[in-house]
Fold each of these.
Amino acid sequence: MSDSNKKGSLLPVYLLMHFGIFIFTMSTVCAKLAAQYEMFSFHFFLFYGLDLFGAFLFAVIWQQVLKRMPLSVAYANKPVSLVWGLIWGALLFQEQIKWNMIVGAIVIFAGILIIGADNEGAGDGKAGDTDA
Amino acid sequence: MKAPATERRVTQMHDVRTAVMVYLVSILISVFSQILLKISANKTYPSHLREYLNPHVIIAYGMFFISTILTMLALKYVPLSSGPVLESLSYVLVPVLSYFILKESLNRRKILGMAVILAGVFLFNLSL
C-alpha cells in the first residue's frame, strides 16, 4: 500500500491547486468590475485585462495540476470557489446573502464531494503514474 | 407613478435572465475546452513547450477566451455570488461529456452526485 506515500507527495500539488482557485475567483471579481464600466473605457480594459491575466495564470497552474492528478479529483476541490463567490459578492458588491443561498452552496459542495470521493478510488494508478 | 418602476423592474428581470443564458453558454464552451485540455494532458510530449503549444491546447484556450468575454458580459447583471453556482453545472456537464468523449465511467454514485448538485443550484437560485 504505497498510497500514503503518494498522498504525501501530492501536498504541494494541493497547495498549488488552491492558490490557483483563489486566483480564479479574483479574476471573476475583475470581470464583474470590468462589466460595471463603459465598454472600451480605460477601466474596462484594465479590469478585463486583469481578468484575463488571472485566467491565464490559473490555466497554467491548472494544466500542471491536471498532469499530476485526475481531472475529477481536481474538480472535487474547485467548489471552494463557491465560498469565495459568496464572500466577495457580499464584501465587494453588497450582494444580499440569503439562507437558501448558503444551503444551496452546501448542497452543491456535497454533490461535488460525492462525485469526487467516487473518482479518488477508481482513478488511482491510472493518471499521473507514468510521467511522475 | 408606479408604472415606470414596474417596467424598469421587468426590464431588469429580463436582463438577468438573458445574462444567465449567456453565462450558461459560456460554461458549455469552457467545459468543452476543459475536455480538450484533458485529452492533451493525457498525451506525452517531447518538450515542456510542446505541452502548451499543440493544437488541442491552443484551440482550448481560444474557446476559453471566448467564454471569458461571455462571462464578463453576463456578470454585468448576474450577481458575483451566483457565478460559481452556475459554474457548478459544469460538474454535471463534465462527467456526462467525459462519459461520451473520454469514455470515462459513469456510475450510480456519480449520477447521485450530479442530482444533488442540480438540487443545490435550484435551491440557491430560489431567490434570484
Amino acid sequence: MELQRDLCVDMLSQMYKIRFFEQTVDDLFARGLVHGTMHLSIGQEASAVGSISALRVEDYILSTHRGHGHCIAKGADIKLMMAEFMGKETGYCRGRGGSMHIADIEGRNLGANGVVGGGIPLAVGVGLSLKMQGRDEIVMGFFGDGAANQGSFHEALNMAAIWSLPVVYVCENNQYGMSMSTRRAFKIEKMAQRAASYGMPGVTVDGNDVVEVYEAASEAVERARAGEGPTLLECITYRWKGHSKSDQELYRTKDEIESWKNKEPIRRFLELLITQRVISEDEARKIEEEARRTIGEALEYARASPEPEVDTILEGVYA
Amino acid sequence: MREITYAEAIREALRQEMARDDSVFLIGEDVGTYGGAFGVSYGLIDEFGEERVRDTPISEAGIMGAATGAALIGMRPVAEIMFMDFTTIAMDQLVNQAAKLRFMFGGKAKVPLVLRTPAGSGTGAAAHHSQSFEAWFIHVPGLKVVMPSTPYDVKGLLLASIRDDNPVVFVEHKLLYKTRGPVPEEEYTIPLGVADVKRPGKDVTIVATSIMVPRALEAAEALAEEGIDAEVVDPRTLKPFDGETVVTSVMKTGKVLIVHEACKTGGVGAEIASRIMESEAFDYLEAPITRLAGLDIPVPYNRTLERHRVPQVENIVAAVKDLLV
C-alpha cells in the first residue's frame, strides 16, 4: 500500500498516545494513586489503531475491558478519559464507569465492557439499527480470543451474518484469556476459521503490523458499508503486561514475552516510515513529544478535577 | 365498551405504537408468520413487514443484545423471549448490559427497550416453561418490571413501557392471554408505578400480582358471601412500586395478605411486606403480614401437583380467614 503521510502520522501519534497513556496509568497504579484494576494493551497498539483508522469519524465502535487503545484511536478527549480513569466527575462517565466502562457516546464509542464477550451481541443491535434506519455508518465490535469461546460470540456472529449487518468484528488475539493460552483453548489453528461456519469472510493478520491491520480492516469496512455484511478480522498480537493488576504471570515465560518485544508495533511502524521516507526522524521525535505532552496535560487535568459529589450518587440509573 | 382478550390487547398496543413510531420494532423467536408461541403478534408481519417483525434464530442472548444495541442508537425494540424461563439465557445482556449501560456511562446513554415474556404455570409445561422470575429483575437497578393482570391494564401499560426510556421487563401470564375485558380502542397509557385498587373493601387487604389478581377477586366474592369485605390491590408495576396505595389500603384494613405465584422464598412478597413494615402502616397492623405464594419447588408436570404448587382461589379464601381469626 502507498503510505499516505497524513494517515501514517495520525496512526503513529495514536500509537504513542496509547502507549504513554497506559504507561502513565500503570505508574499511577503502582504508586497507589488510583484504586480498582485495569487491563493494559501495551504491545497491542497496532491492532486498535490500524482497525479504527479504517473507520469514518461517524462510525461506531464497541470496545472491551482492554479498551484504552480503542478509545484513544476513536478520537477520545484524553483529558476526559484520564479523568474517568481517576474516578473524577469530569470523566467521560462522571467517575461511575472507570477503566472498564469508558464510553465516549458523542465520539461514537459505545463503551468498553466488563464482561468478556458482552459487547459482541450489542454490535448486532447497533448494526441492525443502522440498517433499519438506512444509515451509511457501520459498527466495529472488538473482542479478544477469550471472548471467542463465549456463547454470545456464536449467537451474535450468526445473527450479524444472516441479516448482512454493517458490522466488522475485530478479534484481538493476544493469545491468552487471562492465563488460558489459545493453544489450550482452541483446537483450530486460526480463530478466524470460524467465520466460515457463519458464512462470512475470516481474515487473520499480523496484529503488530499497523499497515497490514489497516488494509485488512479497510476491506472489511468497505464490505460492511456496501451492504455485503460482516467480516471477522483476527489480529494476532501479544500483551506485554499481565492480564490485570493481580497477574503473577505464572503461565508464560520471560523468554516468550521478550520474543514478542522484538515484534514491537510502534518501532516497526516507525522504522518503516523512516526507511520509506514518509517522515523524518526529527518529525517522528516531534510526534512522540506531542503525544507525551498530551498525556501529561490529561494527567494534570484529571488530577485537578473534582471528585463526584456524594449527593449525586443516585443519578443516572434511570432516564 | 368493547371486550377483547389480554392477548388481543397486547397486539393492539403493538400495532398502534408501531404505526405511530417508526423506531418501534419487534424481535424474537417465531414472532413473524407464526405469530409468537402464544399468537400474540399474529398478523403483525403482514402489516409491518419482516424488517419490523423480525424472526430470530433460537439465540436469546443474541436477541437481548440486538435489542440493547439497537436501543442505544435510537430504536425502540420490543423483544420477545418465548418463555420467562429462557430469560436465563439472555441474562448477561439484560442485567449486565441493558440495565447498567446508562449508569456506567454517567447517564449519557439510554436504553429504551421492552422485553415481553410470558411467565407462570398452569399449562402442564413443567419446570422449564412455567417459571415466574420477576423477583430477580426487581433486584436489578436500571430495570423496570411490569406485571399486568387485565386486558385494559396490559394495553395501557405496554404503550407506556414502549414509550419509557428505560429497559422494561414486561411480564405477561399465559393463562391471562385468553381472558376478556373492556379495552378502549384508542391509545392510552397507564403510568408505570401506579397501583390499582381492583376491588375496594374494608376488612382485609389482598395484594395480588398477575394471575393472582383474578383469583383474589374471585376469592373476595366468595368471602363477601360470608360477610368479609376484602380490598384487592394490584401493584401492576413491581418496579417502580406504588407503596403509597398499598400502605393506604393497609392503614384502612389493618390486615394484609400478599399473594403471588412465584416461589415464596425471596419472592416479591418479601419486598412488599418489608415496605409495609417500614411504613406508617406498621402501627395499624392488627395481625402479622401474611404471604401466600408458590411452593419452593420447581413446577411439577402432574396436573394435580402443578395445581398445588401455586395459590388457588380456595387457598386465598382460607388464608384470609386465618388472618381474620
Amino acid sequence: MSQIAQQVFNALQLGSFYALIALGYSMVYSILMLFNFAHGDVFMVATYIGYFVAVGLLGLVAASMLPLPSWALFVLTLVLTMFLASFVGILVELVAYRPLRDAPRASAAITGLMVGIFMETGVLALLGASRKDFPALIPPQTFQLGPIYVTNLKILTLGMTLLLLVLLYLLIHHTKLGMAMRAMSFDYAVVPLLGIPMNTVISFTFALGSALAGAAGILYGMSYPVLDPYMGVIIGWKAFVAAILGGRGSIFGAVVGGFMLGAIEILVAATMPSTMRDLIAYSIVLLILTFRPYGLFGEEYSARLRL
Amino acid sequence: MSSPQLVVENLEVYYGNIRAVHGISFHVNKGEIVAIIGANGAGKTSTLRAISRWMVKVGPKTRMTFEGHDLLRYPPHKVVSELGISHVPEGRRIFGNLTVWENLMLATYARKDRHNLKRDFDMVFDLFPRLAERRNQKAGTLSGGEQQMLAVARALITGRRMMLLDEPSMGLAPLLMQEMFAALRQINREGTTILLVEQNAHMALKFAHRGYVLETGNLVLEGLTMDLLQNPRVKEAYLGG
C-alpha cells in the first residue's frame, strides 16, 4: 500500500515535467498547426540558463551580497529563468519559423529539428562535453507522511506545477493576449482585422511555452542534477508524445497527457524489469492512440485551444 | 469640396497570376454610405480586402489613400488600429470558442482611446440588445443573425472611422435583414462612413447614398443610388427586370 502511494508521488513528479513541456508543443500547435520540434532543446537550453542563474545567485549569497533564504532564492531563480527562457522561444520562432510562415509545414518541422541540433551542438561547443551539476537551491529533506516517505523536491515540483497551471489558465482566460491566443486557435487569419498584430500573439505563445519549459528545467535540475547538452532530446520527445496523447493543440490534453505518461512509465517501471520500461510504456501509448488517433481531447479537424 | 476620405486608384488584385480586379478607381466621402454591387466572383471581396490590406496582393500601379495616409504603408492590423477602418468579413468570422463578451473585449485590443469604450459598448448594446442578453454565451452557439450582429458589433468596437462590410445581408431572413440595415444606418448617423459590397443589389442600393457596379473585375457604372435604381442596365442585370 505504502509502495503504491510512493509510486503515485513519483508518477506525479515525472508527469509534472512532461506536462510543463508538453504545454509548449500544444500551445504553439493550436495556433500555427506546427509542432516545434526544437522545444525539447529549448528545455535543455532553459535548464542551462537556470543553472547559470542558480550558480550566479548562490555566488552572490555566498559573498553575502544577497541575503536571501533558500526558498526566496529558489523563487528568484525560477522567475529569472522563466523570463530568460522565454526569449529562447521568441528567438527560435523569429529565426527559424517566421521566415517559413507560409512554407509547407514539413519544411518548418525539418527546420525545427535542425534548430534543435544546432542548440545541442552549440551548447556542446560553448560549454564543453563535461556535465554540469545543478546546485542544490533547497537542501533536500525527506518527510514522512504516515507510512510513506516523500522528498520536499517532489512536493515542490508538484506544487509549483499546479501553481503554474492555474496561472496559465488565468492568463489564457483573463488577459487580452490570452484571449487573442484562443481566438487565433479558432480562426488564425481573421485576427489582424481586429487590430491585433499576429506576430505579437505568436511570439507571446512561444515565450509562454519556453517559460514553462524553463520552470520544468529548474524543477528537473533540482531533482536530477546532471545537465548535458542532449538532455532535452528524450524528455522532449516524450513530452511531445504526451501532447499527442492528450490531443493535438489541446492545453487541457497536454496536462492530462503529461501526467498520464508519467503514470504509465512509473507503473511499468514498478512492475517490470527496468530495461523494458519505455518499450512497454510506449506500446501502451501506441495502443491508446490506435483507438483514439486524435488523442484524448483532440478534435479531428481543428486544434482549438481549450481548457 | 474637401477631398474624399478614401481614394482608390488603379486597384488591381492578384491571386497568383490571376487578376481578380482589373485596375478600378473609386472614392468614398466622409459620412457616406457607398455600395459596390456585383455578381459572385466580380471582385467585390477582393476589393474590400485590398483596402484592409488583408489576405490579398495588389498590383504595382495601385494607389490607395485614407484621410491622406498611404494605405500601402500599413500592415493589416495597423489599418485597423491606427486608421480606424474596421472590416466585417465574408462569413462573419466571429470566434465561436469565445463568449460574446470576449469577442467584443478582444476588439478593444488595439484601442488607444480607452475613455470612449464605454460609449461604444453602450451603443453596441443599444443597437443589438440581444448581444447584451447573450454576453456570457459562447459565440458559436448564437443563431446566424445574432452572429452577424456580433460581427458588426465587433467591427464597431475595433474602429469607427470607416466600416467595410462584406455581404452583410448574406444568410439573413428578410426581417432580420431590415433590422441589420437599420442598425447600420444608425451606425452611419453616428459618424461612421460605410462601404459595403453586396450581391443583394436591391437592398444595397436602397440603403446606400452612392453605388458602383462591378462586373468581372471592372467598374462599369457608378452614380447616386436613386439613379442606379432607375438605370435600365442595373434593373435588367441586378434587380430582376
